[in-house]
Design brief:
The chain is of the alpha/beta class. The protein is 21% helix and 26% strand. The chain folds into 4 domains: 45 residues, no CATH class; 33 residues, no CATH class; 140 residues, MoaB/Mog-like domain (Molybdenum Cofactor Biosythetic Enzyme, Chain A, 3-Layer(aba) Sandwich); 69 residues, Beta-clip (Beta Barrel), CATH 2.40.340.10.
């Protein structure tokens, strides 16, 4: 008698499974005649010494951990998860559940963005809400200084940017502010000492779009993930699209069975529309109008 996975006794070459046998006090009776080598897994059939099965740059999942353990590895060398700080900005913001929410805006972006970044593999700390004054914002940013990436939400649009700029103008090496896309135009990027600084727009859809397009590749770069960035494919339109202006559009839509339907409402504050979308329809700057059935590029929403 042998157990599943055990070494075969010397001189044997076949195993009969227990279901195909009957036993009595002295004999084993075969109910089915086996073929030679039946129920045998030969040594090395799964992998051999020096086989490369988990390559550098692989995002580890439970199946990789099981495989590494079966190869008799006790440890794996991995890249450190980036530490990301989130700071919301605005006197108008209050926390969910606040009794003083009338005429205020519930702070929701930080919760969704934190969950998304953690899903991508980052270690995230939410530093809460900074008020619309230099001191409050500087205190939060100073506390976050040891992080790899500092993300502010709000305070990036025209006029509001003055507050962010004034708060960190001596330390910030500004690389760019404002990009030709919709939603997400008032995006800020720079360096704060050793940290990367990313200032997201305050509108929820804009903030989430910029997270997928800019923060996700940054996190993947930190952890050396391969082929983990943007996968753009194609779909046929179920409704018409008008010509585009000078900005690249990321239109919220719903994709099914090879067809995509743009939502009628494209307001950058509408989380309900974002929640019912599963793709962005990508419209290049100055793209011509599109008719029903014509091909457009789409990007899967992964948050």
């Amino acid at each position: 008698k042998v157990y599943t996975g055990s070494v075969m006794p010397s001189g044997t070459d076949t195993v009969i499974i227990q279901e195909n046998t009957e036993t009595n006090a002295s004999d084993v009776i075969l109910k089915k005649i086996p073929q030679k080598n039946e129920n045998i897994r030969k040594k090395g059939f799964d992998f051999k010494t020096d086989d490369i099965l988990i390559r550098k740059g692989t995002k580890l999942t439970p199946k990789h951990i099981s495989l590494a353990a079966s190869m008799n590895h006790t440890t794996l060398v991995v890249y450190r998860k980036p530490k990301i700080a989130i700071i919301s900005n605005g006197d108008e913001l209050v926390e969910p559940g606040s009794k003083d929410a009338q005429n205020k805006i519930i702070s929701a972006n930080n919760y969704g963005i934190k969950a998304y970044l953690e899903q991508l593999g980052a270690n995230v700390t939410d530093f809460g809400i900074a008020k619309d004054n230099v001191k409050s914002l500087r205190v939060k940013i100073k506390k976050a200084a040891s992080h790899d990436i500092i993300v502010t939400i709000g305070g990036a649009s025209v006029g509001d940017f003055d507050l962010v700029k004034e708060s960190i103008h001596k330390e910030l090496q500004l690389k760019f502010w404002k990009i030709a896309m919709r939603p997400g135009k008032p995006l800020i990027y720079g360096r704060l000492g050793e940290a990367h600084f990313l200032g997201l727009p305050g509108n929820p859809v804009s903030a989430h779009v910029c997270c997928q397009l800019f923060l996700k590749p940054m996190i993947n770069k930190f952890m050396n993930f391969e082929d983990e960035n943007l996968y753009i494919t194609e779909a046929k339109l179920k409704t018409c699209l008008k010509e585009n202006d000078e900005r690249q559009d990321f239109i919220r839509g719903f994709f099914k069975d090879g067809f995509v339907t743009p939502h009628k409402v494209q307001d950058s504050s509408s989380l309900s529309v974002l929640n019912s979308s599963n793709v962005f329809i990508i419209r290049e700057p100055n793209a011509p109008s599109k008719r029903i059935g014509e091909i457009v590029q789409i990007l899967k929403i992964d948050f």
